Amino acid sequence: MKKFILDEIDHQILDILIENARTPFTDIAKKLVVSAGTIHVRVKKMEDEGIIKGSTLTLDYEKMGYSFISHVGIYLDKTSKTKQVINELRKIANITVAYITAGKYNVFCKIRAKDTTHAKEIIFEIDDIDGVSRTETMIALEESINDKTRLMHSIFREI
């Protein structure tokens, strides 16, 4: 697979868009002292190459009453039930991330809940899925790192 080469302008565009995906191309162009057309062409090229995949909206779940975060490690009866379990997990809206893993757990999830009672209900719902043998839950006390830019800048230094 051919590696797509990014130059310094591309790096700067990505840096701005990671900070705020809704930044108008004209604002990016002014900041980088290039034309808005240049920004448009470069972003389109990065989208076509699959480097940029859509844009995201970041919600403040705490302000909406969902401040409780926990991570749930899921053990399965049989690994052959992984796809079936993942499909059932997709039906639980409070599961915001799920990974199929190698190691201690078969699946590892992040859940958002209103409080401990709500989290318990979600975990019981996970436990009731056919194929789940048991779960282990870790409560997140604080999200200390959630940084989208450090890895990107490290990758830019490599290329």
UniProtKB/TrEMBL annotation:
GO MF annotation terms: sequence-specific DNA binding
Which SUPFAM superfamilies does the UniProt entry name for this protein?
Dimeric alpha+beta barrel, Winged helix' DNA-binding domain
Q: Which UniProt keywords apply?
A: DNA-binding, Transcription, Transcription regulation
Q: Does the keyword Transcription apply?
A: yes
Q: Which InterPro entries match?
A: ArsR-like_HTH, AsnC-type_HTH_dom, Dimeric_a/b-barrel, Tscrpt_reg_AsnC-like, Tscrpt_reg_AsnC/Lrp_C, WH-like_DNA-bd_sf, WH_DNA-bd_sf
Any GO BP annotation: response to amino acid
GO cellular component terms, alphabetically, are: cytosol
Q: Which residues belong to any copy of the HTH asnC-type domain?
A: 6-67
Protein name in the entry: Transcriptional regulator, AsnC family
